[in-house]
From TrEMBL:
PANTHER family the record matches: TRIFUNCTIONAL ENZYME SUBUNIT ALPHA, TRIFUNCTIONAL ENZYME SUBUNIT ALPHA, MITOCHONDRIAL
Gene3D superfamilies: 1.10.1040.50, 2-enoyl-CoA Hydratase, Chain A, domain 1, NAD(P)-binding Rossmann-like Domain
Name of the protein described by the UniProt record: enoyl-CoA hydratase
Pathway as given in its UniProt record: Lipid metabolism; fatty acid beta-oxidation
Annotated 3-hydroxyacyl-CoA dehydrogenase NAD binding domain residues: 317-495
Organism of derivation: Halomonas koreensis
CDD domains: crotonase-like
Pfam family, one: 3HCDH_N
All copies of domain 3-hydroxyacyl-CoA dehydrogenase C-terminal, residue ranges: 497-596, 631-716
Entry keyword set: Fatty acid metabolism, Isomerase, Lipid degradation, Lipid metabolism, Lyase, Multifunctional enzyme, NAD, Oxidoreductase
Residue ranges that the Swiss-Prot or TrEMBL entry lists as coiled coil: none
Encoding gene per record: fadB
E.C. designation(s): 4.2.1.17
């Protein structure tokens, strides 16, 4: 034994080959925490001090190699000043460079995921052999930073600048065959042959068949691109990546600049360039919020996993209602391996649902994600039916019929009579009270809400809604089924609009008030898109459907009359109601705030519609100009306040779940971290002051809660 630590051991064999094994005690995966990096430094010093060694293999005793740095340390680490961050990076570079400079050949055996810092550790060795089930990648740009432990230096010298830019700027996880094709690894073998293959590579290097010194020289020297090659590799990439990343995510472009600046430098100077850029990004609000987003996502997944442990598995599902939504649910279930019955009362409706599922599978084939054989096999997981004949074997049935409480109640009661006593029923309703719908059922404890967002195959969120009589088993089974479908379920309690729509409609309320006071909806859309929303409120209303918005607004107005009463529409001044009354329903009939034409791909493309502009102007007094900051405040304050109320009312269990639901459900700008983190960023006291000022002019929709005022006075935050 050369070294023994809490996470790392180093052994040697009779031939003088050392094996450094990562095996972090009491953890399911290996992570490079500060303590583990410290141990790695000690282990490398022990290896350097050992006599008669002729090679080193880096390996893992866990299923993954190393999943990356310990992200739970990032917020504390990145709050330090730039000099301290640079000092940390220099220490890690010193350890990694010491591995790279060992006086004998080195190999990494990649048995599973090697991401971020785990990938960067692997890049220090002369050679890499990879299990055919492993994946390799540098996803740091998704956290608002860039690879800071040598990834921006070593990877371009191994696989070329253009390929490295694709990996680093895209933050992709790459499968073994792709890694081999690019030259990031030297061999791909079945997992059971991994260590033998690593020893073979090492032995060939020791015999001189493989020139490890040449590999090192290549990694430590300049990239060797001339001026034209640099322009082709970097300037073209900057334009493309900037278009993909958008203005709010600086890390991908900064990574390209780092690779470019370091292209003509040797290792140490290129690493210094990388470290300086990392330290600058690490201290940005974008990085802080994206790291927070990752941690929130981990918390949500952990909670989902806890529910899943308690759940009876769903082996056979069903969906009631075979329209676009029902077809989307059936597709998602079948695609992830859970057979599903798709029932409706009409043949043409069933055919519509099947057509939607076939279309979605066909797109997967077009993109190379599935073969035609796989598509055909997965389509057999969807069984259309007009009767309840086979429902006795169903474990969970999702009702997805029209948003009408009487119709839903009747369908749920029929379904309950057809399924077994332990079967779970769930309603895909966006607004109707789960407690109210449960009144139609004999076994309300087996019933909950399962609110999918449209389009089902793209939107990651599923709200699982607990009614007053919903049992734990129903919630657990529904969460487990949603996770098996590849979705992120968040459990919420019953109220009008549940969580996401309840928070969204005050945002629409702020928009309506702006319209009534003479704002230009096109300008509001532009400002909110610049703020970071994927689409502005007028465009979003067109996508949602003005008829749906009117219906949901009435539910919200009834549930919260004091602050949302105007959302029901008075037929006189509500611009949303006026659009609906004029049969302008949005994209569904190509007429809303905008008109819609099909683009070359057959997708709706918005164009200016003078009739819509005239209609909005009729709802307003005289035209008025609003500044960008005022538009943002008037849109965001009511949304954020409703998120606060949902947390205070116990509708959602934590700030993390509230923020993730808004990001996954309605596209809240991820780089801003969510509604509650957005309040924290403003300062709770400053936010309350702003809300009070707006409430004086605009009414209760903008009024802070008493508890929020207490938080402001106490200097508290939603996130520690």
């Amino acid at each position: 034994m050369i070294y023994q630590g809490n996470a790392i051991t180093v052994d040697r064999d009779a031939r003088g080959v050392a094996t450094l094994t990562f095996d972090l005690k009491d953890e399911s995966v290996n992570k490079l925490s500060t303590a583990v990096v410290g141990e790695l430094g000690e282990a490398v010093e022990a290896i350097r001090g050992a006599s008669d060694l002729e090679g080193l293999i880096l390996a893992s005793a866990k299923e993954a190699f190393i999943v990356g740095a310990d992200i739970t340390e990032f917020h504390g680490m990145f709050e330090k000043d730039e000099a301290e961050i640079l000092s940390m990076l220099e220490r890690v570079h010193g350890i990694f460079n010491a591995i790279e400079d060992l006086p004998f050949p080195t190999v990494t055996a990649l048995n599973g995921l090697a991401l971020g810092g785990g990938c960067e550790v692997a890049l220090t060795t002369d050679f890499r052999v990879m299990s055919d089930a492993a994946q390799l990648g540098l996803p740091e740009t998704k956290l608002g930073i860039l690879p800071g432990w040598g990834g921006c230096v070593r990877l371009p010298r191994l696989i070329g600048a253009d390929n490295a830019i694709e990996w680093i700027a895209g933050g992709t996880q790459n499968k073994a065959d792709e890694a081999l094709r690019m030259g990031a690894v030297d061999a791909v073998v079945p997992g059971e042959s991994l260590m033998d293959a690593a020893r073979d590579l090492l032995e060939r290097a020791r015999r001189g068949e493989l020139d490890h010194s040449a590999r090192r020289a290549e990694k430590a020297g300049p990239l060797g691109l001339d001026a034209i090659e640099q322009m082709m590799a970097f300037e073209t990439a900057k334009g493309y990546v900037a278009g993909k990343a958008g203005p709010h995510y600086p890390a991908p472009i900064e990574a390209i600049k780092v690779i470019q600046k370091g292209a003509g430098e040797r290792r140490d100077r290129a690493q210094a360039i990388e470290a300086k850029a990392f330290a600058k990004l690490a201290r940005t609000d974008v990085c802080f919020n994206l790291v927070g987003l990752f941690l929130n996502d981990q918390l949500v997944k952990k909670k989902g996993g806890q529910y899943e442990k308690q759940a009876r598995p769903v082996e056979q599902a069903a969906v009631l209602g075979a329209g676009i939504m029902g077809g989307g649910i059936a597709y998602q279930s079948a695609a992830k391996g859970t057979p599903i019955l798709m029932k409706d009362i009409k043949d043409e409706a069933v055919e519509l649902g099947l057509k939607e599922a076939r279309k979605l599978f066909a797109k997967q084939v077009e993109r190379g994600k599935l073969s035609t054989e796989q598509m055909a096999e997965r389509l057999t997981n969807i069984r259309p039916t007009l009767s309840y004949g086979d429902f006795g074997h169903v474990d969970l049935a999702v009702e997805a019929v029209v948003e009408n409480p009487k119709v839903k109640g009747a369908v749920l009661a029929e379904t309950e009579a057809a399924v077994g006593e332990d079967a779970i029923l769930a309603s895909n309703t966006s607004t109707i009270s789960i407690t109210r719908l449960a009144e139609s059922l004999q076994r309300p404890e087996n019933f909950c809400g399962m609110h999918f967002f449209n389009p089902v195959h793209r939107m990651p969120l599923v709200e699982v809604i607990r009614g007053e009589k919903t049992g734990d088993a129903a919630v657990a089974a529904t969460v487990a089924y949603a996770r098996r479908m590849g979705k992120t379920p968040i459990v919420v309690n019953d109220c009008p609009g549940f969580l996401v729509n309840r928070v969204l409609f005050p945002y629409f309320g702020g928009f309506s008030l702006l319209m009534e006071q003479g704002a230009d909806f096109r300008r509001v859309d532009k400002v909110m898109e610049s703020f970071g929303w994927p689409m502005g409120p007028a465009y979003l209303l067109d996508v949602v459907g003005l008829d749906t918005a009117v219906h949901a607004g009435e539910v919200m107005a009834e549930g919260f009359p004091e602050r949302m009463g105007s959302l029901g529409g008075d037929g006189e001044r509500s611009v949303i109601q006026r659009m609906f009354d004029a049969d302008r329903l949005g994209q569904k009939n190509a007429r809303g705030f905008y008109a819609y034409e099909e683009d070359r791909k057959g997708k709706p493309k918005k164009v200016v519609d003078e009739d819509a502009i005239a209609l909005v102007e009729q709802a307003a007094g005289e035209r008025r100009e609003f500044g960008d900051e005022e538009i943002v405040a008037r849109m965001m304050v009511p949304l954020c306040l409703e998120a606060v109320r949902c947390l205070e009312d116990g509708i959602v269990g934590s700030p993390a779940e509230a923020d993730m639901a808004l990001i996954y459900g309605i596209g809240f700008p991820p780089f801003r971290g969510g509604a509650l983190r957005y309040i924290d960023a403003q300062g709770v006291d400053a936010f309350v002051e702003l809300a009070d000022r707006l409430a004086e002019e605009l009414g209760p929709l903008y009024a802070p809660t008493d508890k929020l005022r207490e938080m402001a006075r106490a200097g508290e935050r939603f996130y520690a």
